[in-house]
Amino acid sequence: MKIAALERQRNIYLEGFRGEKPLVPIDMKALEQAAQKCMSTQAFAYIAGGAGIESTLQRNRAVFDNYAIIPRMLKNVGDRSLEINLFNKALPSPFLLSPIGVLEMVNKEADKAVARAASSLGIPYIFSNQASVPMEVCADAMGNSPRWFQLYWSKSKDLVTSFVQRAEKSGCEAIVVTLDTTMLGWRTRDLSLAYLPFLEGKGIAQYTSDPVFQKLMDEAVAPARQGSITWQTLRGLIQLVNNYPGTGFLRKLRSGRPLKAVQTFTNTYTNPYTTWEDLAYLRSVTKLPIILKGILHPADAQKALDYGVDGLIVSNHGGRQVDGSVSTLEMLPAITKVINKRIPVLLDSGIRGGADAFKAIALGADAVCIGRPYVYALALAGEAGVRELLLNILADFELTMGLSGCKSVNEINTDCLLNGGEK
Prior knowledge:
By secondary structure, the protein is of the alpha/beta class. It has helices at about 5-15, 30-40, 40-50, 55-60, 110-120, 135-140, 155-170, 190-195, 205-210, 210-220, 230-245, 250-255, 255-270, 280-285, 300-305, 330-340, 355-360, 370-405; strands spanning about 70, 85, 90, 95, 125, 145-150, 175-180, 290-295, 310-315, 345, 365-370, 415-420. It has two domains: about 5-185 and about 275-420, Alpha-Beta Barrel (TIM Barrel), CATH 3.20.20; about 190-270, no CATH class. The protein is about 45% helix and about 10% strand. The strands form three sheets. It has an eight-stranded parallel sheet with strand order 4-11-10-9-8-7-6-5. Strands 1-12 form a two-stranded antiparallel sheet. The protein has a two-stranded antiparallel sheet with strand order 2-3. Helix 15 crosses helix 16 (about 330-340) and helix 17 packs across helix 18.
């Protein structure tokens, strides 16, 4: 789909003249505030929160102000293109959707609604390992549109293999190995509410739909009952049973499968013993490009090259893992210098609009990933809200690019920024 920023802008104004306001707020702060009002306290805490005092979350945004765009004039930008080439595939824009789990907390259609919205614009969607909808269902909703799969390294290699094989059969074009979540960070908002959605059976659809995971459930030993039964416990149990796939509440309850699913998930979720050497196993079970998500140090970028990976995502998990961490944008120049265009480098964590994407690309990113904003749009207006948000971001980026004197993405470089060179 060809992106037309001026047409998008014109449509918004014309609809306003007819008395129709945008489906989702244009301003990102207003978008978050509006979404908070329609989300549960637990859902908003899970999506919006960061680790510790959330200094990393704040730093991700603050660092963008260290760089200023230098607009250039009389550059003939009448014909503009956002197209890029990534892993030998032409894409209509340099945007992807980051994997975000447990979307059922904000919308019943969850990942499927996001998949349809992304598909309508040709934007690659990275399916979450912690999805609320199995990857096969989302793939069917996307047709031939591009999608990738995020992989958390489980304690079970058989489960890792099964997920990867399913991703291949679902038409995923890359495996994104998330490195920074071998353990959950100290997420203050969630801890203050004493709430983890996985314990209610939410966000584990990739697992319960997997044959290897079902076999692991058969091998699991039921936990001994501990503590007293409260109304909150009963409520959680009801949620757990309802969230488990299949019909018939009593039948599912008697089977014990919902409880076993949560127990097996928590026992196999991630593996803190994972090392660089484990990448060889992943390479042995897939021919898809392997992308490492969570790289923040130039030395790790060099190791990624040494171990033959195909791409990187510079990410700190949206500030959700290490409080006081470096931001992604401030580490991007050193990482892209090491990579030296040998493999694609993407960036997430902190992108909130066209200018952010422009700055990231100027500093060497081949593409950027959108995260929390699309979840807020999903909460407010479902699939249509996500699509409208993406149209707004695309238009913002195209106008920023053109007004800065660039008619294509490959013209964006460090010369476009004040403080864009090495410090």
